[in-house]
Amino acid sequence: MSMDSRIEAIEVKCAHLEHALQELSEELYRQQQALDRNGARIEEILRMLGELSARPAAPAGDMADEVPPHY
Q1: DSSP notation for 11-61
Q2: Lowest mean pLDDT among 35-39, 45-49, 60-64
Q3: Separation CA 6–CA 9 (nearest Å)
């Protein structure tokens, strides 16, 4: 194998590695965006749960006396 062909083979491998690195970098960016969105959703859900737990509970008798909506 001549020096030129060895250099060309290395350049081809390098080009493939650069392409793979770019694809991985883009995927990592997309995954980080998804993590950020999911984190924001979790924070919103936790806030809503906090609001629900801060509300006073309805008396048990009120729910027992109500007629279900399908009657």
Answers
A1: HHHHHHHHHHHHHHHHHHHHHHHHHHHHHHHHHHHHHHHHHHHHSPPPPHH
A2: 60-64
A3: 5
Asked whether residue 47 is domain-assigned, the answer is yes
Distance between CA atoms of residues 35 and 28, nearest Å:
10
For residue 24, being part of any structural domain is answered with no
Residue pLDDT, tens place only, 4-43: 999 999 999 999 999 999 999 999 999 999 999 999 999 9
Say whether 8 sits in a helix, a strand or coil. helix
Q: What is the rounded CA–CA span in Å between residue 45 and residue 61?
A: 29
User: How many domains would you assign to the chain?
Assistant: 1
Written as one letter, the residue type at 3 is M
